[in-house]
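Structure ticket #2291
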Amino acid sequence: MVPICSPVIKDGAVAVSNGRILAVGSACMLEAQFIDAEIRHCHGVLLPGLVNAHIHLELSAFTDIAPPTSGQSFCDWIRSLLQVRQQGHIDPVELARVASETLQQQHATGVGLLLDIGNVLPSTSASLVTFLLELLGPTGKAEEQVLARLAALPDAVAATAHAPYSTTAGIMTALKHRADRLGHVFSLHVAESAEEIELLGSG
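Resolution: structure written out below.
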């Protein structure tokens, strides 16, 4: 048993009733506490569900895009991804199907909660997904457009910034203040590439 918040329990047990965890501890302790409980023995490691803190389900269908090569910058790779995405050669129904398939794969491998970052509001919601609308704009003109869109967003829609290299300070500040005010999660891409680290360090 790996509770995460406390040391590993070698001979651990979980007391469960109606789908809810009542207690976690050593097998002998729980057997004494829940005398009439049905006991199911199992072998392996038990730990809480994993959290995928940053996934882009809407990009699940673009797995055929090769990762950056040794001579290719991260920015060049991002441009190639955006070009393929903007061509729109993948049917929206297929995009939704692959995203749903990816979600099922995540759940099957132990992920119990996902933070899904996307540029388009999803048409459906899933109980194990928290969605953040990702906004970006590197110029003053783009900032005006993004702030206008942000002002029109319903409070129920959580929004966040993309990255320091793609989002003005004004957009990022507005998004962070909104997230704090509404109690939303705030996520950010940071230090993803050598180019971005150089930008942040030297301007």
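Closing remark: The first strand starts at residue 12 and ends at 17.
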